[in-house]
Design brief:
With 63 residues, the protein is an alpha+beta fold.
């Protein structure tokens, strides 16, 4: 997922995580791992520096 910004719908489709995935995305935003911005009628999501650290760590330990 990396450096790109994805709309919420595209991101959840890419992850195959509708429903509960959206709740997790909102929790990640609350913890400062994801930055969300509204453009017209879409919400875009982007990993923060902290979010990238978590993804890197998860990859290193095989999650």
């Amino acid at each position: 997922i990396g450096e790109k910004e994805y709309s919420t719908r595209d991101l959840l489709k890419k992850l195959g995580a509708y429903g509960y995935g959206h709740k997790l995305l909102l929790r990640a935003e609350g913890r400062g791992l994801v930055q969300r911005s509204n453009v017209k009628n879409k919400t875009y999501n982007k990993l923060t520096k902290e979010g990238k650290k978590i993804i890197k760590l998860a990859t290193e330990i095989g999650v």
